Amino acid sequence: MKQQDNNEKRYTFPFKLNKLPIVLCFVVLALCIVGIIVSVLRIVNEGIVIENVLQHPFLIAVCIFCMVIVLSLLIKSQYIIDETNFTTQFGIIKSKLPIKTITSIEEDREKEKLTVYCGESFTVIAIKKEWNDEFIRALLAVNPDIDYAFTMTENKPPEKTDEQK
Questions:
Q1: Continuous H helices in 19-149
Q2: Distance (Å, whole) CA 75 – CA 43
Q3: Which of 52, 59, 105, 122 has the fewest CB within 10 Å, making it most exposed?
Q4: 40 vs 57: CA distance, rounded Å
């Protein structure tokens, strides 16, 4: 979590990515590199053939585009809280939500999840559990009217098996 303090306060919380999406991103990057290498080798060996004049350059452009998208996902996936907006940035895709429209925050301590509600819609926040309190404080600092609730695990008795009944 970073706090940038120019004239306005701005908090940045990076996404907590699981291993599977990270592995898939690296697989896509590897495939893009292979696609570029194969296309360049074909251009060098065969030259630009009139019938397929756009085939290899198009494949190179698509691979570069995919690499930019995947690298932006890995580098710039974060939540940003500033004086007016709650921004979710997933690579080059951004969505802004005015903090004044947020109605409540719910923290599920058993599942270690934060949920931000805006009327009937909601967003589940994926950050490190150590940053949950800082995230909540940052939202409440901008809009103290946000309701905050948390849920905890109940101590349920163990279920009886058929033999114990």
A1: 19-46, 55-75, 132-142
A2: 32
A3: 52
A4: 8
